[in-house]
Amino acid sequence: MPESSEHKRTVRRAFTEQAEAYAANAAVADTERISRLVEATKVDSDARVLEVATGPGHVAFCFADHCTEVIGVDLTKAPLEIAQNEKRKRETKAVEFIVGDAESIPCPDNSFDLVVCRLALHHVEQPRHVVQEMARVCRSNGTVAVEDLVVSEHTERGEYQNRFERLRDPSHTRALPLSEIIQIVTDQGIEIDHLETGSVVQNVTDWLSNAETPQQQATDARAMIREDADEDLSGTRPFWRNDELHFTQQTAIVAGHILK
To answer: SS in 3 state form for the chain?
Structure first.
């Protein structure tokens, strides 16, 4: 089922408020990390590419350095305005940005050679539906690629992380275990050609600040991470460095081709 209109309002509100901070977030904007995703897709120079949930367009611009046409679609106008401003600065015609819903992509069937989504599935209520839409607009034998946060394969540990992620940002629904992402992707008739995992170390103070988390929720999230540091409750391995609390988010890239 499609995600609720109420949740979409939450997403729009969160990414409107966070737009500038999100665009500047090192984990989001890191060109080295984005380049690993581009490399994983083996994108051709003549490919037509769609980025779903493009946000400020960092991924779209990186793909535009390697191919002729990229379209970025996002539910929220504020980050798209940042992307449009960057497009004007770059004076490029290779990238276009449009407002659109990831679970109802405003594009015809079989219209792209590559469809990619980075760090967005954990913000939707029905990730399976989003990947289904990505597969729909991708041509036969084209590539679909997803990069996202992943949580522990142990349900209680994964939910512990998701709980403090939701305290920090109410637009966060559920980061999935890697096995579930693989199942969702293969269920859409995609043969996985590339799989890699990585990690991002988060400074808790910066992580909360970037999301403009209200004080009470920030206090509760910090308390959960402190408890996690003592009791190993999620697999995020919290630790202290220079009197600052940190934890580690796991990530994964899953890419493959649409079977004929």
So the answer is: CCCCHHHHHHHHHHHHHCHHHHHHCHHHHCHHHHHHHHHHHCCCCCCEEEEECCCCCHHHHHHHCCCCEEEEEECCHHHHHHHHHHHHHHCCCCEEEEECECCECCCCCCCEEEEEEECCHHHCCCHHHHHHHHHHHEEEEEEEEEEEEEECCCHHHHHHHHHHHHHHCCCCCCCEEHHHHHHHHHHCCEEEEEEEEEEEEEEHHHHHHHCCCCHHHHHHHHHHHHHHHHHCCCCCCCEEECCEEEEEEEEEEEEEEECC
